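User: My advisor asked me to double-check a structure prediction for Glucose/arabinose dehydrogenase, beta-propeller fold before group meeting. I don't want to rely on an old file, so could you generate it fresh from this sequence?
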Amino acid sequence: MSAPPYLRARQVRIALAASCATLLLAATGCSLGEPEPDPAGEPPNLPTPSATADAGDQEAVATVLAQGLRVPWGIAFLPDGGALVTERDSGRIVQVGPESSPDGLKVTEVQTVDDVVASGEGGLMGIAVSPDYAQDQTVFVYYTAERDNRIARLRLGEQPTPILTGIPKAGIHNGGGLAFGPDGQLYASTGDAGDTDQSQDLDQLGGKILRITPEGKPAPDNPFPNSPVWSLGHRNVQGIAWEGDRMYAVEFGQNTWDEINQITKGKNYGWPEVEGRGDDEKYVNPIVQWSTDEASCSGLAAVERMLATACLRGQRLWLVELTETGTVLGQPQALLTERYGRLRAIAAAPDGSLWVATSNHDGRGRPAPEDDRLLRLVFAGGGAGRS
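Assistant: Sure, here is a fresh prediction for Glucose/arabinose dehydrogenase, beta-propeller fold from the sequence you gave:
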C-alpha cells in the first residue's frame, strides 16, 4: 500500500543525542517502539528512519504537513484527526487535514474572528476543542480585542461569545495558552502585559495561570475564593501541558533564564522577585531553565513521559525526559536546531506524534518561501509517534 500524499512530502531525518539508551532501565519515555495498527486494522504506513549511528543516538523524522501559513499560534485536534490552527495576525482559524492534497494535508479556512485586534505579540492565540465536541461542537479561543485579552467560545462559523474578559493586553507579554486539563476544566496562561505588579496581585488576571469552567466561571476547588487564579507569579506563560495528572508550563524569562515549571494549585512562581531558580522557599523553582538565547520557548506538549517545548529565539525543540515522579531525568536534548527557524506551536497528536509550527513571519524571523510550515515529528526506535 502506497503512503498517503502527506507522508510522501519532503521528510528530514535528524540525529538527536539523547539519553534513551540509559532510560530503558529507568523510565518508559522512549519505549513506544514499533507503531501499533490503526483502529481500522491496517498497519501504519510511515517513513522508515535510517539506522542510528550508535546506541547513544536518537533519530527523528520530520514531515512537512502544510506550508504557506502566517504566524500559526495554537493547534487543537478534532475528533476526526484533523487540527484547528490559529493564525495570530490574520485572526484566521484554519483546519489542517484529515484530508490530503498533493502538497501535504488539505488546509481549509474555517473562519476569521472579527474581534481580533492584532498588534505586537497580541492577536488570535490559543485554541482548545471541547472535550464533548462530538455533542456540543464547541471551540474556545484566546485573543486580543480592542481593550483586553479575552477567552471566548464558539461554534465554527458562528460569532464567538466572550466568557472571560479583562485579561491585560499590551504589545508584549500577552500569554495566550489555552487547554482543557484532565479534570475537564479550561486552563489559560496569561502574561504580565509589561506591568510586573500584575503577577503578584491576586485581584489582577495578568501573570497567572487561570482555571475556569466552560462557561467562564472560576472552577470548583480553585485555591482562592471566587477567583479564576490557579497559580501566580508568572512573567509570560504561553505553553501548558499535562503528563498524566501533572501540569507543566513553559515561561519566558527576562534577560537571563527561560524555564519549565511544574504547576501546582495555588503556588507562587516568583516573578518579578525571581527569574529562574532562587533561594526563597515561598517561590517554586523551575524544573529546567535555559539561557534566553537558546530557548525563549512558547509551545509545550507532553507525550510518553517526555516534555517537548518549541522555541522562538533558540530555533529548536527542547526534549525533557521525566521520571515516574515527574522530575527531570538526565539532560534536556535539543532537536531541529536552526533547521526550520523560529518554532512556536507544538501539540501532541492523537496518534502520538508531535505537530510543530514555525513562526518565521512574526516580524522577528527570516521566512523561507514555504513559511510558515506545519511539521509532523516521529521518533525512530521508540518515543513519540504512531500512525
